[in-house]
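Quick one, tokens below. Sequence please?
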């Protein structure tokens, strides 16, 4: 059986100053999360050049040590850069990469095939948020492949996620959701976990929501997200950064 990821995976926001990764990482780990993604929040991977990403990996890896597992977001400027980054991160002991193959062309299956032929990095396939407009058309050829750990899916409707779970979820293929709304519906599906950007701010709350799944924790999460959304309407990443700045976790 493949090594299983944690129940809550946090794609870390990318601070303006790379040294702010350190207090952010401490904040998330102290909240009980043990699975962290670098360059994984929506769109931020495209804003950072390759050498800067590598410099951040060099800094962050020894700081995290054995306190958490590290993943690398593979949303890069082009496919060769994504492959290079995957191999680089693997060399630093990263657990896995998150691969959105449709970013690199219309044939997602070909991209996935190229990836697993050119890197030994374990991969989560990544269906990104619905507004990108493209999903992986068929993951069946890769379910059970030793390098493919599972899929992180952010569907516009939970019935899509439910179909993935019923067809593919197994002890060797894990299904995570990237949606944070209506989790009471998601919890009726036999998921392996959540990939949550909001857990940058509320790591302990998300861990509690996952474990308890009770009305009190879900209502607290709903109020917290409503509060965040008011900080910078229309740009949720900025909402996260503004609240983290307010709490003096990042500058």
């Amino acid at each position: 059986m493949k090594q299983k990821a944690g129940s809550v995976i946090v794609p870390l926001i990318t601070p303006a100053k790379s040294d702010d990764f350190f207090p952010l990482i401490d904040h998330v780990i102290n909240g009980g999360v043990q699975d962290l993604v670098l360059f994984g929040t929506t769109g931020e991977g495209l804003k950072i050049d390759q050498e800067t990403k590598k410099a951040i990996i060099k800094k962050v890896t020894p700081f995290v040590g054995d306190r958490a597992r590290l993943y690398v977001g593979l949303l890069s400027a082009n496919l060769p850069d994504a492959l290079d980054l995957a191999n680089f991160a693997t060399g630093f002991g990263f657990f896995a990469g998150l691969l959105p193959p449709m970013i690199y062309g219309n044939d997602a299956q070909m991209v996935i095939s190229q990836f697993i032929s050119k890197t030994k990095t374990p991969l989560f396939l990544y269906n990104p948020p619905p507004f990108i407009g493209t999903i992986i058309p068929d993951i069946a050829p890769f379910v059970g492949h030793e390098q493919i750990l599972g899929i992180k899916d952010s569907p516009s409707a939970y019935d899509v996620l439910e179909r993935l779970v019923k067809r593919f979820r197994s002890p060797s293929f894990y299904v995570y959701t990237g949606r944070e709304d209506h989790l009471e519906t998601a919890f009726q599906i036999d998921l392996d976990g959540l990939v949550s950007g909001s857990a940058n701010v509320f790591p302990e709350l998300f861990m509690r929501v996952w474990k308890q799944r009770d009305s009190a924790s879900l209502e607290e999460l709903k109020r917290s997200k409503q509060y965040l959304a008011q900080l910078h309407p229309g740009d949720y990443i900025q909402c996260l950064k503004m609240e983290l700045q307010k709490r003096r976790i990042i500058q």
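The chain has one domain: 8-246. The mean pLDDT is 92.
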